[in-house]
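fyi for ur records
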Amino acid sequence: MKKHTIFLASVATLMLASAMLSSCKARKTKTNESDDAPVASLSQKLEVKPILLDTTHYGRDSFEAHNVRVSGDTLFIAAEYSGGCKEHVFTARHHGNYMKSMPPQLNLFVDHQGNGDSCRELVRRTIAFDLKSCRVGKSGTIILLINADRSKKVTYNY
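which gave:
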């Protein structure tokens, strides 16, 4: 009789535990853009800006470039900077001076204009640029060095 009571108590405890676990739902965190989000969905949400052939600096505010990647004709950069109170503008440009190598290399400069934002919130967002203006010929490969940093280089095949 005692064994039967212990068995029933064990079964009841297991049923209660499984009911509690199955009633809990996983919480989803909503973010604007994620580094793990599919690239195709990011390009639909983001404004894909042109890359300028220009030597002018369009901003000298600092930012960190993370997870630099190319998908199709679009360059994606996960940018991290201090701000949060004013609009921040990112501009990409190159000088048109391709390095003589196989494949050719190009310094691509990304300028950040924070518009005097003195807020200190850590802002993370993905920025996107159209790479078509960087092409040499109808098809090929170019190595892009982001802000002349060899650790942040990506390959663009077109």
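The chain has two helices and eight strands. thats all i got for now
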